[in-house]
TrEMBL record:
<protein>
    <recommendedName>
        <fullName>methylenetetrahydrofolate reductase (NADPH)</fullName>
    </recommendedName>
</protein>
<comment type="similarity">
    <text>Belongs to the methylenetetrahydrofolate reductase family.</text>
</comment>
């Protein structure tokens, strides 16, 4: 069970992959086939995002975050971490969700606050009853060390934080409460991550900090994601993209080159030993990045029993 946590602590270079749950039953089949192919590269773990309204009690729904996570773990046999947000639930509901995770064998959680839906009054902000820190405390209090817990970190500070320094202190509180490693929000420039790691270490955050890498795979999509995350895309990137923005393949290739450059730098200077890829459920460019970085392990693909040459195939 401690595999994720132990290997991260060992400092052995690895990669991990984030996916969102597919939206349709057809998408589910494609998703697991893609994951099987990704598995050949030897990810340390994959993680599945959680969406407002997700509810593991609804395991029957094949596209729920928890069903997909259970499938990754039990069908594709890859260590799996489930994201879980707590802002929109009661404490009891969150604990019930964790019980459900336990019942399907999941032992790793990315504990998050999440966002509430915007309130109707225009200038009113949503009121958060619980934050990630609360959830981490509940998990440890109710489940001891059963779950490996990860938490989010924001290299530029969370947009709602009173200040960058306050956000760092809050991150330290999450780690002190039991988070065993940090996965960061996406960032566009290596120095942003490098500074964040230095600042974390300075205030005594000693757990591994894994850079969350979002390769640029589309002009509109990266602009949308940056806007949602309240991040500014640096001007030099926008300028580069301006010339190729209508050519999706060129944008993807540009994103691949830039992601490789940025990762090489932070891996080489020791700011990180591993990377976490936000795949957006895509494959080609992500795989290329991992191969370029030498993190892809080229394990033999698994042969399923019903495939030609599989162990149970009638021709054998
Ligand atoms: P928290 O860590 O709880 O922090 C929220 C804010 O509260 C911060 O600004 C923090 O500084 C502030 N704060 C809390 N307590 C204090 C205090 N005492 N004093 C001062 N400030 C305080 N969203 C999803 O809906 N589903 C997902 O699957 C998902 N996956 C994500 C994965 C990663 C790696 C990251 C980085 C984000 C992900 N998100 C996801 C987005 C996330 O839910 C939002 O960014 C959300 O706004 C914050 O969630 P959090 O757990 O990071 O919040």
């Amino acid at each position: 069970h401690e595999k994720i946590n132990r290997r991260i602590k060992d400092g052995v270079p690895f990669f991990s992959l984030e996916f969102f749950p597919p939206k349709t039953a057809n998408g589910v089949a494609n998703f697991f086939t893609r994951l099987d192919r990704y598995n050949e590269g030897g990810p340390l773990f994959v993680d599945i995002t959680w969406h407002m309204g997700s509810n593991p009690a609804n395991m029957a729904k094949e596209t729920s975050s928890s069903s997909i996570a259970a499938g990754c773990l039990n069908y594709c046999r890859v260590d799996t971490m489930l994201h879980m947000t707590c802002a929109q639930y009661t404490k009891e509901e969150t604990i019930r969700h964790l019980e459900q995770c336990k019942s399907v064998g999941l032992r790793s959680i990315l504990a998050l606050r999440g966002d509430l839906p915007p309130v109707t009054e225009e200038d009113q902000k949503p009121v958060y009853k619980y934050r990630a820190l609360d959830m981490i405390r509940w998990v440890r209090a109710e489940f001891g060390n059963y779950f490996t817990i990860a938490c989010s970190g924001y290299p530029l500070g969370h947009p709602e934080a009173p200040s960058y320094t306050a956000d760092l202190q809050y991150l330290k509180a999450k780690v002190d409460a039991g988070a065993q490693f940090i996965i960061t929000q996406l960032f566009f420039e290596a120095e942003v991550f490098e500074k964040f790691v230095r600042d974390c270490r300075e205030i005594g955050i000693t757990v591994p900090i894994i850079p969350g890498i979002m390769p640029i795979m589309g002009y509109e999509s990266i602009r949308r994601i940056a806007a949602l995350s309240q991040l500014t895309i640096p001007d030099w990137i926008l300028k580069d993209l301006e010339e190729i923005k209508n050519d999706d393949d060129a944008v993807g290739r540009y994103g691949t080159v830039k992601a490789v450059e940025m990762c090489r730098r932070i891996l080489k200077n020791g700011s990180a030993s591993s990377i976490h890829l936000y795949t957006m459920n895509r494959e080609g460019f992500c795989r290329e990045i991992l191969q370029e970085l030498g993190l892809w392990q080229k394990r033999p693909g698994r042969t399923l029993p019903w495939e030609p040459h599989g162990p149970n195939h009638p021709t054998r």
